[in-house]
Design a protein that fits this description.
5 helices, mainly alpha, elongated
Length: 118
Amino acid sequence: MTDEENTKCHKIIHTASAATAAVGGGLAQLPGSDAIPITAAQVTMVIALGKVFGKAITESAAKAVIAGLAGASVGRLASQFLVGWIPGLGNAVNAATAAGITETLGWKVADKFDKERG
């Protein structure tokens, strides 16, 4: 990965992570209500990362990539149901979990796309 690609990936991934943190934290007391907006942010991130590496990624292909790499989403759901309902603590835990998973997912996708180029 070139320095320019790395810089673009950082911007894309950190923006998506911040967005998912805001959603996860803001909707903590409503378990499951954040799934659609978080998935939308992650799909947008995967499509944008594809562009960095010269790949045209469709929405359905982005969802498939996310599904293939998103085993950690089970942890997000568990934390949401265990502490998500607690005001303050639940908001912080859900925000951190959503951001962490999105950040990890983003770098896995960037690495995958970089390696696929050969």
